[in-house]
Every structure is written in structure tokens, then in C-alpha cells.
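To the wet lab folks,

You asked to see what we're planning to order before we commit. Fair enough. Below is the target structure as C-alpha cells, and below that is the sequence we designed to fit it. If anything looks off to you, flag it before the synthesis order goes out.
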């Protein structure tokens, strides 16, 4: 996304206690419950969604599923390869 063009400074790093906003991509989102499924690891630290006061989740429309069973199916498919 063109963050600079919007006048926003964005750094790709783990969050610290001073960050007001954290932006993450998500593995999928569950429409029925409003649940976000995030993956954590060296490239996707969990702190970016937990520490800042505001969390912005970027969710591709193709990754919004109806319920938890569909989310579990996506997780199984991703981990079985």
C-alpha cells in the first residue's frame, strides 16, 4: 500500500510499547464471530497486533470465511503441504 503517499510513516518491525498503531496481515477472518486468525513467527511477530492501542488488520477478501470450520480447513490445508 502507498503509506508514504497518504502521509503515513510505516516501519516493518515488531511493535514496542510506544507504538500507537500496529498493522498486520491476517491468515483469515471468520465472519460469524469476528475472529482474526493470525500467524506468529520471526517475520510476523504477535506483538504488532497486541501491544499498540489500535490494531489494523489487512484481510484479503478471499480469506474471509463464514465460520470456524472453514478457518480450520484453511489451516489444515496450509499445514499439510
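Sequence we intend to order:
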Amino acid at each position: 500500500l502507498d503509506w508514504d503517499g497518504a502521509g503515513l510513516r510505516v516501519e516493518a518491525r515488531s511493535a514496542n510499547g510506544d507504538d500507537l498503531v500496529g498493522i498486520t496481515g491476517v491468515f483469515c477472518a471468520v465472519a460469524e464471530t469476528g475472529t482474526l486468525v493470525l500467524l506468529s513467527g520471526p517475520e510476523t511477530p504477535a506483538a504488532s497486533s497486541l501491544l499498540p492501542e489500535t490494531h489494523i488488520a489487512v484481510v484479503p477478501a478471499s480469506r474471509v470465511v463464514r465460520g470456524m470450520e472453514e478457518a480450520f480447513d484453511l489451516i489444515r490445508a496450509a499445514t499439510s503441504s
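Structural context that might help your review: The longest helix spans residues 68-79. The radius of gyration is 14 Å.

Thanks,
Computational group
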